[in-house]
């Protein structure tokens, strides 16, 4: 019976060792996941700082980092590609939020801004954000012309 007692003790000890190893392994896995989550958080914060720095310095005459120019050029290419997709689908992009809209839409279906588009021959007519600044200038000029015409007609009728 002494042998059976020793076998029982050995099995008990082995079971305790296995349980401890599983517990340790589980804890190590949890700690590694926590580390990965914290590292991902730090990476996102780094990216956010970089994005904020880019937004602050994208219009600098000579940016401190060459990557700013690369980002600006890449964003312009992205806008061109999006416009190409929209054009192929028979849509137009909102000059404010870049959402695709029907070609005959008067207002953006996403942001609600007026969608008066002036299609320019040169890319220089559009700034990086997709806002058609010359189109806005044309819109203001047209409104001023209409107002002047209305004033002239009112004076002529008197």
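Q: What amino acid sequence fits the structure above?
A:
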């Amino acid at each position: 019976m002494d042998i059976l007692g020793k076998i029982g003790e050995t099995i008990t000890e082995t079971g305790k060792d296995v349980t401890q190893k599983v517990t340790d392994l589980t804890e190590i896995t949890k700690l590694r996941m926590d580390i990965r989550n914290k590292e991902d958080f730090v990476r996102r914060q780094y990216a956010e700082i970089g994005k904020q720095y880019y937004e602050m310095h994208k219009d600098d005459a000579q940016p401190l980092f060459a990557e700013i120019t690369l980002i600006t050029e890449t964003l312009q290419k992205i806008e061109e590609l999006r416009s190409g997709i929209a054009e192929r689908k028979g849509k137009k992009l909102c000059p404010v939020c870049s959402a695709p809209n029907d070609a005959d839409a008067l207002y953006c279906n996403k942001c609600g801004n007026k969608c008066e588009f002036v299609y320019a021959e040169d890319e220089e007519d559009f700034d990086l954000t997709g806002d058609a600044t010359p189109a806005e200038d044309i819109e203001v000029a047209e409104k001023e012309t209409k107002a002047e015409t209305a004033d002239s007609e009112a004076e002529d009728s008197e």
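Q: And what stands out in the fold?
A: The chain has a mean pLDDT of 79.
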